[in-house]
Amino acid sequence: MNTTIAAVLVLAMLVVPQTVSQYRAIPIWPEASIHAQYQVKSTSGDKIDTVGFWDSAHHWYSIADEERVITPLSNQQRYKSTDITKIADNILLYQKTNGGWPKNYDMLAILTEGQKRALKKAGMDANTTFDNGATHSQVEYLAKAYSIAKDDRHKDACLRGLDFILAAQYANGGWPQFYPDRSGYRRYITFNDGAMIGVMNALHHIVQDKPYYAFVDRARRDQVHRAFAKGLDCILKCQIVQNGRPTAWCQQHDDVDYRPRAARTFEPTAVCGGESAEIVLFLMSIDHPTGEVIASLQSAVKWFNNSRVRGIRVQKVKAPTTQFVYHTADFDRVVVRDPKAPPIWARFYELGTNAPLFCNRDGKPVYSLADVDRERRTGYEWYTYAPEQALKKYPSWQKKWAPSQKVLEE
After folding, report:
1. Model confidence at 45, in pLDDT bands (50, 70, 90)?
2. What are phi and psi of 154, to 5 degrees?
3. pTM metric for this prediction
4. Chosen CATH of 43-237 out of 3.30.390.30, 3.40.50.1820, 1.50.10.20, 3.40.50.300
5. Catalytic residue among 153, 182, 264, 313, which?
6. Other CB atoms within 10 Å distance of the CB of residue 130
7. For residues 94 and 137, what is the distance between their CA atoms, to the nearest angstrom?
8. Which of 127, 132, 201, 354 is flagged as catalytic?
9. For residues 388 and 394, what is the distance between their CA atoms, to the nearest angstrom?
10. Active site residue 132
11. What is the pLDDT of residues 209-257, one digit of tens each?
12. 264 has catalytic annotation
């Protein structure tokens, strides 16, 4: 099915489903109020990018999760962007004894004494993960914080986090979503929510000898170089081949044979626009790429170009405030025709047909956002502009590393 047909399919009439209302409300925090602090500066002008914490912070404030040890207060205070040492100290409170971190907390939240006690009591928990920016973002922040404040506690915690990352890697080079708990789909090689690419970016910064990682010893550096090479090989092996042609990647891949895998019931086996864009941008960051990396990237860029959906945009509209199991929404999302809209990509593309694919919690695939229940329309992102960033960067990358291979002109 081509993208023109797919664009027509998503314009079906919107149907608002019945809702679940027997669950408690959770606080909705304005995203702008959190996101505004995600470029952190010290008074001396040093900068630490904390965008990696955004996804987990958003989940902590806006999405119900019974596994959390602490929940946000209605008036939860947050550290100022100048409080680098305090934020780093906060990160230590969340670190588990195995060296990793759990997801879905706000690293910038000013914790009460009761919240601190609860975190310390749960220090032995093994719910450590790379999902939603967890672990690799903390390792990056602590390394940068140590380069500024020279607090050995931050350095030691960073190294324990790095050791955790290295221990979690599969022999085939991939990383699971969770470690050591690899039950269910948690065991799959996971690109969703920046898991494996977040890890690879952190390792890449060590491989590149970034100054803020100067404290990492030679033995660990050797381990990192080997882990990075294995991880890169795994990424290339995960690329989905259809009809003899490499395309892009799924959100998860099998931890043994690399084939695409489904995760939650609404996350089908598919070629995925957003995660693939993140992978391609990572591959573009590699200096002197091998022929294999060049070929992989070229194929993915060609797939991005052929998979654009034109003539539509996703619009956020007012709707009755509804309390769902995991979130509360006072809006809905609809697809509208707009011939002037920039190209957009679906989150999922059906294997074989390359048609935009959607899903409900019952696991049944549908081919229109309108056929997705409102709970999933408002609680999940079904479209993305992420591939556009890769396409914009492609010409300069291609000119430098593959000057004779202009795949977008074929």
Report:
1. low
2. -70, -40
3. 0.90
4. 1.50.10.20
5. 264
6. 29
7. 13
8. 132
9. 10
10. yes
11. 999 999 999 999 999 999 999 999 999 999 999 999 999 999 999 999 9
12. yes
